[in-house]
Amino acid sequence: MSNKQIKKAVPSSIGLIILGIIVIAANLRAPLTSVGPLVSFIRDNVRISNTLAGLITTLPLLAFALLSPLVPKLGRRYGVERIILIALIFLTVGIVIRSLSGTANLYIGTAILGFAIAICNVLLPSLIKRDFPNKIGSMTGIYSISMSLFGAIASGISVPLAVNAGLKWQGALGIWGILSFVSILCWLPQLRNQTKQTTTISQQIASNEVNVWQSPLAWQVTLFMGIQSMIFYVLIAWLPEILKQQGIDSNQSGWYLSIMQLALLPFTFIVPVIAGRMSSQRLLVVIITILLLTGTLGLLYGSSNIILLWIIILGIGGGCAFSLSMMFFGLRTENAHQAAELSGMAQSIGYLLAAIGPILIGFLHDLTNSWNLPLFILLGASVLLFIVGIGAGRNRSIGSRNSYERLQKRR
């Protein structure tokens, strides 16, 4: 192919990649956030405790933790595009199995879709780093807002689909298989770029090999990812139940959870763009911490008449934290390979921490019959997020201990 032909192919190819990223991102939260409002229906139907109900949210997080370190190697060996396509197929299968009747199908399907989402979680940030090295902020924003928008929609329509539309909880969860099947069709054109992109990644590995597991900065990014994920998934799993204790019915609490996620939408795009233009992201970490502390304290001690305000504040804080954690994969690395390795590490250890959240919170509620202690746990987690975030927000790269010093000398 001539240089002229390559130049003509790039715009349409880039357009297809962007479309594929948007559609895939839409699948990364909806199958998970659709569960929270339906927990009481599932619990009563299959007769499980709150602790086991929390496992429905925790299983995907455990899958993220187990598979994430292996994903970069799978991507290098078989090609990023091919592995993502296989993941989308398994995601569709997992959603279908989960929607079938029976406790076993519920957990088996949840585990399968968890493994599938784990692959896309790890590879999409590195794909953005590889194909959009000069637009990491805007592309991360697009990726994040698609994920968050469909996550919010899933939370809001779960109960209406189950009750008003007569689909029951099985149908309300299974309907997301349609979206995952559409993503398969949208991603198929990417397979033609397989050979060229695999070669590019191999060249990057040879030029700059870094062991992220030995990097203190990588561990700070990992803990930031884990703590913010734990806070988010605890709210996704239990906020409707927390609100029910305050007299809000199932349908309304589901929409409140949806509003929480809708509130973060503008910030999931704005924060990555702002973070990409800042030399240090520490100020963003401070703002995020204040928002999370204010929202949680509002649920504990604030007036129930303005409970929607506390939920919106929590949503904004959580959205900013998530977007910033995604940005760290690109900002703290020097190439797509490093981004994939850091993403794999952060999502492995990070989601292992996050997996503890829903089960722990469910157990503490069963133990105390109150949501006060669980909310105090979230306050402590917000403080820890600040501590590790200050370190992760430094203007450095895991590829070079002295990158910050070299930047100052150039200035």
Describe the protein in words.
Mean pLDDT is 85; it is low at 1-12, 195-207 and 402-411. The chain starts with a helix and ends with a helix. The chain is globular. By secondary structure, it is mainly alpha-helical. Helix 7 (103-131) packs antiparallel against helix 17, helix 8 (136-164) packs across helix 16 (307-331) and helix 13 crosses helix 16. The chain contains 19 helices and no strands. It has a single domain (8-410), classed as Growth Hormone, Chain: A, CATH 1.20.1250.20.
Quick structural summary:
With 411 residues, the protein is mostly helical.
Q: Whole-number average pLDDT?
A: 85
The helix tally amounts to 19
Share of β-strand residues: under 5%
Give the class-level CATH name: Mainly Alpha
List the SSEs and their pairings:
Blueprint: H1 3-26, H2 30-33, H3 39-46, H4 50-67, H5 71-78, H6 80-98, H7 103-131, H8 136-164, H9 168-174, H10 176-187, H11 194-207, H12 216-245, H13 250-263, H14 265-277, H15 282-301, H16 307-331, H17 336-368, H18 372-392, H19 403-410
Helix pairs in contact: 1-7, 1-8, 1-10, 3-4, 4-7, 4-17, 5-6, 6-7, 6-10, 7-16, 7-17, 8-9, 8-13, 8-14, 8-16, 12-13, 12-16, 12-17, 12-18, 13-16, 14-16, 15-16, 15-18
Note the main attributes of this structure.
single chain, 411 residues, mainly alpha, Growth Hormone, Chain: A, 0% strand, disordered N terminus, disordered C terminus
